[in-house]
Amino acid sequence: MQFSYSNPTNIYFGQSQIAAITRAIPSDSKVLVIYGGGSIKKNGVYDQVANALSDHQWQEFSGVEPNPSVETLNKAVEIAKKDNITYLLAVGGGSVIDGTKYVAAASHYEGDGWDILTGKHKVKSAIPLGAVLTLPATGSESNKGAVVTKKSTQDKLSFLSPHVQPKFAVLDPDAMKTLPQRQLINGLVDAWVHVCEQYITKPAEGMVQDGFAEAILKNLKTLGEDFANHDNNAWRANLMWNANQALNGLIGAGVPQDWATHMIGHELTALYGVDHARSLAIIQPSLLRNQIEFKRAKLEQMGQNVFELAQGPDLAERTIDQIESFYHNLQVATQLTEHGTDKPAAVQAVLNQLQTHNMVTLGENQSITLKKIDEILQSAIA
Ligand code: NZQ
Ligand code: ZN
Predict the structure, then answer these.
(1) Which one of 218, 219, 280, 323 is at 20 to 30 Å from 304 when CA atoms are compared?
(2) Which family does it belong to (predicted)?
């Protein structure tokens, strides 16, 4: 264990906390409020934000799509530069928050903002931003990461920078009341896989990291088993806080991390439009079975501590079966069908994209080579 850790995002958690943005954003700011396709107009969130900003100078940019595109976001960058915006407020799910992070960084860069995603430009500063979360899943509201898509080339890439970590995030579970079941399930699955990416690796004797990861996994399992009763305050609040804690840097500090499921999943979203969380459920069981010898010890630990399985030589195998059942019980598929019927073409298309993005040695051991990814895709694609 060797790390430096800080999570500087100020969290305002609970009902009616949207009002807190009045104080959280300096009163002399020129604010650009960024949101998506309009869900915030149907659940009262937009009105609460407008109310809280009534003494601020502000304007808005809407239309950030799920899996936000650089094509759309560059229009917001133009506005931010032209109107000398000094504060950004993202109101929405992971896509809006990630998109706002891109706008924040690209507005402080004279070149093509896409350079931030390819790594050609390293972010040195950004417009400060805050977030009002309406869909718990990604953890983006209090982390340094963002994922942006270039539609024209079907490239879905990510960047990390401390400069785009939100200064504050409002987590009001009431904002979730209008979420369709599909998005609630996506939130459960995405948060679950975030914990797995930082936990199902190799033993590192991180007692706090392992213990906290197992607590979040058990909580998400309970929320999934209780999905029929999701329409209540405690269920919503607990999903919101668990999803935040799953990817705010804490459980991954100083321990090995994987992220191969995410890197391969991103290509399924870019090529076939699969929801982010669902792309993960498609890849992960096949990947775990492929890499079982590297991950056996942690799978056994998870089997005992999360699923309460009995000891035995096939404990790791049974743990993967339980993970797959967790998805199936939520009606989430673990094989790709969105590609149509030409499986060889789909496998090749994903492999080609991964090669283009230089994602050819993945995982905590760098053991997920292109050959292994091919095997994983043969089982993950129907
Ligand atoms: O656009 P609106 O109208 O707001 O509708 C959205 C969107 O259609 C809707 N929605 C959000 N809140 C709602 C609501 N509908 C009704 N009521 C509400 N309260 O939900 C739809 C999906 O939203 P989106 O933001 O795309 O979902 P999510 O939060 O799952 O974000 C997915 C994106 O985050 C990236 C993913 O790759 C994907 O692009 N990720 C970001 C990460 C990060 N920054 O750390 C990590 C993740 O692993 C992930 O890769
Ligand atoms: Zn994710």
Answers:
(1) 280
(2) Belongs to the iron-containing alcohol dehydrogenase family.
